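SAMPLE LOG
Freezer: B-3
Tube label: C17
Construct: single chain, 163 aa
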Amino acid sequence: MKHTFLIVLLTLPVFAQSSSPPTNPQPRKVFDEVADSALIAMTKRAEELKIHGAAVVAYIEGDVTKSWSSKMVVVGVMKEPPTEKNHGANLLAIAYSKAAEMAETLKDSGSAGRPPMTGETGWQGGLIRKGKTGYLIAAFSGGPSESDLKVSQAGLEALAERL
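STRUCTURE (predicted):
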């Protein structure tokens, strides 16, 4: 039996160089509306590829990362349990690590052109694009990098339609 869990909005401002949030709430409101469509598209693509994991979409207003809004969904499973041969994997943590790397570099995950910093995975599977009013991020973790990228592309396309 297939289980897909939708974890509702995680909108936490991440203030880097400013103590105040962005002044225009409109793009963030649009993100809230579009994020669910993007996560549904990512879920559908992951299911087509027969992979499970965690999908994240995020929106960064403007040209500099000062805050973001994000949502996530679990597609089947959120973790790979530990075994005698490996430590297991927190797929949600990996997806958010990919997103955080992209928020810092403004490049697709795994393509920063530098070694990963502590907290980053350096793995491919996340995509970032400049939208109309800021940056759009989609990241998936759970399959091989090529499959993660296909799932992320589905989410990014849905975000780009309106943002």
